[in-house]
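We modelled the chain as a single entity of 82 amino acids. Its sequence is:
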Amino acid sequence: MLTAERRAPRLPGSRHSPGFSLGEAAQIRRDVLTMSSHPECPRCGGELDVVGAKGADDIIWITTCADCRLSLVVHRRAGDLV
């Protein structure tokens, strides 16, 4: 018996992109961790909104592009290399 994969229904206004590639995610992570300038979306060139939260041993940033609506979570543990 085969099991069919069900796709979630598309909601109005939902994004149609599969998300960032691994290379794009690595670039965003590098930009967020160095914070040399405000990170730019590698997909559309829009400005990424970065919101961070700090824990005891780690920091988590949520990056979201207002233009293409893609987002990425960047996690840095204490001792991680940039």
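As a brief sanity check on the tokenised model: Residues 1-6 have pLDDT under 50 and may be disordered. The chain is about 15% helix and 25% strand.
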